[in-house]
Structure formats: C-alpha cells, structure tokens
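Reviewers of the previous submission asked for a worked example of the structure-prediction workflow described in the proposal, so we include one complete record here. The input consisted solely of the amino acid sequence. No template or homolog information was supplied to the procedure at any stage.
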Amino acid sequence: MLPNREGLFHAYPVDVGVGETRENKLLQVAICYHLFEELASGEWVDCSADNFEITGYHILEKRDHALNQTTIEALKAALGWDGRDPFWLQDNAAELMQKPVQVKIGFEEYNGNTSPRVQFLNPYGSKPAGVTKGGDDLRRNVINRLGAKFRALAGGTPANDIAKWDGMSWSALGSGMNGSVRALTWPGDGGRTALYVARSILTNRPLRATLCAQKRPRSRSPSAHGTGAARRCCPHDALCVAIPRQIPQSQHATALWIVKPQNRLL
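From that input alone, the workflow returned the following structure tokens.
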C-alpha cells in the first residue's frame, strides 16, 4: 500500500524498469521501493509492518533533451551505477533488491489529486543535511551587490547626503546634513571620539559665519549653533570653530557638525 505519511524512509528497490514519460517521451527509470524504516524524532524506527510500497520515477533527461545530471548523480550514489548505460539498472534489478537506499516521501498535487511521491533518492544511512549558513564574505558580497535593492524594496532609511559604513553595512549618520557635504575630518585620535562634517548652507541675509559645534558625551546626533560669538556659545565641554568673516547675502557658507560615533566611522 502507498505510504500515508511524509518523511525520510529506508527502502529496498524491489523492481527497476527503464522507460519514457507519456507526454514528452523523456527517458526515465521507474523504481518500486519497499519501505522498512522511517526517521521519527531523530531515530530510525521499523515500519515494515505497514507494508508501504511506492514507485519513484527518476527522469534522466530534461525537456530540451539535455541529461538531468542531478538525477543521474543521485542514482549513481545510491545504487552504485557508473552512469554509463541506464539499462544496467534494469538488468541488475535482482542484485539491487538487496541494496537498501534512502528515499524522501512527500505529498504533491497533480491533476487535482494529492498523493505521496518520491522526492529524493539518497544512499542508505545518509544524514539529513543541515542548513547552510553564509559567512562574512557572502554577507559583504550580498550587501554590496543587492543591499540597495533590498533597502529600496523595504522603504529604506533616509541618509540625507551622508552615510556611514561600519565594515559590514551602510546606515544613516545621525539625522544627516540636508546639504552637500564639503569636508570630513577628525581629531588626532583617528576618529575614535568625533567626526567633523562640513556642509554648504545658502544664506539669504548677511551672516557672520561663526559656528559652535558642541561635543556632548554619549551624544551620537549632529548638533551645532549657527551664529553668535564663539566665546558666548561654548561651555567647557564644547569644541568651537569660528570662521571670522562676513558672508555676503545669497552665497554659500559652511556649517560644521560634530558627531560622536559608536565605533570608528569611515
């Protein structure tokens, strides 16, 4: 009788025949499997009393009549076939009856009917394959090649004219600049405590371009003060930058932001 459940089974190939599919006339090997063990909760359990039998159809060529290499390799590994003459499997069916194999049974729908089918053929005693996990090299490759597409699909995070790279991925630098970035610099410690970011601003009135950029401990957001005297706006924990010249109306001035990074930036 056909198996009434899915899973991994050990089986004997009790009969083998070579033929063609009905519609496309593709070469196939039909194997009738008698199931005698099933994998349940990580242990192999005897199921021979259920008298399960199922025929698997292993198609050896594709619709373009190229050889189906995956199926051929599976038959070679499980049954000891050398891959040369498919009729070897049919001619040696009596010997193959004594060679246990492992099959994966799953329910599939075909022409409106759901029935169990042989989905995979493996050598006897094969262990279930674990999930392959990508390493750092693959992660970087995916980020560089597809990261922008994923972010665009998900809506993304506005970077507002500047972004930071932490060695693995891009992210926004604070709330951004809202203007073209003109310069980047950092103190003598190589950027471990702060990063200075300068941008252009367009003034619509005469402006004394004295700017105070405060360095607040634990602050990771850009902060700055635009006008006023440097001495008046700088407390003891502030870093002040002054550009002591007048900027004519409707011309670009320079604003400076200071950002304290989580780790090293850029």
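The radius of gyration is 35 Å. We consider this example representative of the routine output the project will generate in years two and three.
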